[in-house]
């Protein structure tokens, strides 16, 4: 079919319609370009915003997650380990060579306070499971990271101690396979590994809660 032509005041409406199509195309191209620029700016702003949150404090109001921070409600040892007792134990204290049985929590302070191990349940990240076996190691044998061993050595049976672990008292070479305690779930391992292997973007300070459940004397 041929297009219908109408003359109004000497103007060709078909010609005007074609011209309008071209104008619409120009408008669309311009609009898409402006949208792309806007999205580009938003993307850059979003990346900047995300980078600000990447190492945000995990526990608000305390500035946890910032390297070399000192907290007034924690005691500090000569090694730089900071700790406080959530529950004081009332039993014996372990000695070098004793086997200690503990339950523990672990958090990646510099990564939104993400949990990588939980007391009483085998869960890490989004995974939840059944009751887990408690962790045991021989005190003084260097089976665990320095902060963990130092913390347990100063505890009494039945106590729960929270510790802030700077990178130099944590996992050697940023590898949880080289020293305990190791997360018991895949999701927990993945969360911890993400922080430990990150090259400088995320603070590697960690937080542990440790409960001393049993002491098996060295005979």
From TrEMBL:
GO cellular component term of the entry, any: chloroplast
PPIase FKBP-type domain location: 97-216
Family annotation (InterPro entries): FKBP19-like, PPIase_dom_sf, PPIase_FKBP_dom
Name of the top EC class for this enzyme: isomerase
Signal peptide positions on this chain: none
Keywords, comma-separated and alphabetical: Isomerase, Rotamase
Source superkingdom: Eukaryota
Known catalytic reactions: [protein]-peptidylproline (omega=180) = [protein]-peptidylproline (omega=0)
EC number: 5.2.1.8
Recorded GO MF terms: peptidyl-prolyl cis-trans isomerase activity
Name the record gives this protein: peptidylprolyl isomerase
Organism: Ambrosia artemisiifolia (Common ragweed)
Lineage of source species: Eukaryota, Viridiplantae, Streptophyta, Embryophyta, Tracheophyta
